[in-house]
Amino acid sequence: MMAIAPAPEVLLDHRGNPRASFEMSLSYEQARLGTAFHEAGHAVLAMAYGVHVVTSEVIAWSPETDRWSLTGNTAFEARDTKPWHFAAQCAAGEIANVQYLMTYGLWTPERALACSADHDREQAIDVLADFGYDLGRDHTPDRRKSWGMVRGMARRKIGYLWREIRTVALAMDERTVLTGDDIAALTGMTNSPRQGDAA
Predict the structure, then answer these.
(1) pLDDT, tens digit (0-9, with 9 covering 90-100), for 150-186
(2) 75 vs 19: CA distance, rounded Å
(3) What would the mean pLDDT of 73-88 be, rounded to a whole number?
(4) Residue 121 Cα distances to 7, 91, 92, 118, angstroms
(5) Under a CB-based contact definition with an 8 Å cutoff, are residues 11 and 5 in contact?
(6) Which residues contact 12 (CB under 8 A, 6 or more apart)?
(7) Residue 160: which of 112, 84, 96 has the closest Cα?
(8) What is the 3-state secondary structure (H, E, C) of 10-49?
(9) pTM for this prediction
(10) Cα(176)–Cα(181) distance, rounded to whole angstroms?
(11) How far apart are CA 29 and CA 23, in angstroms?
(12) CB 124, CB 136: distance < 8 Å
């Protein structure tokens, strides 16, 4: 674990605002693995949708004696991705983290609530809006989708890809950082080439 916090920009959302933080009644090891599942959810769904994954990692540090903080980051190139696939990939982190709690017998309503990742939802809303798609935060826009619908899409895909997500999460917990090529090798999935690398 790092002794000091990561670079400030790592703790900001896509708009430059601080990401929300939550207390979880879990041990460091349990919470770290949950963060790994969150990032693995993003990475595996992104890769399944043809997105080039650069890295996916767990970031842990000690802000003061006898305290710890965790976050994560998944870097990818999402050019030419279908808008609803991008949104489902955004929802996948939170869903995979809650699924981890249920699978490992750690689920409580409070812990599930602490898995909330509003920054992922807001990024999906903003990115889709840039392309003319209306993603409803708490309603279903006319002929469009709500965040609840997108979460349902992510939940179904996670069900199909749970073995791959679990494999990636366990490896990430052990190694801290995985490249997209590491994830592809672990899962047998294909990491699409970078935009400039495509033949």
Answers:
(1) 999 999 999 999 999 999 999 999 999 999 999 999 9
(2) 17
(3) 90
(4) 23, 7, 10, 5
(5) yes
(6) 18, 19
(7) 96
(8) HHECCCCCECCCCCCCCCHHHHHHHHHHHHHHHHHHHHHC
(9) 0.92
(10) 15
(11) 14
(12) no
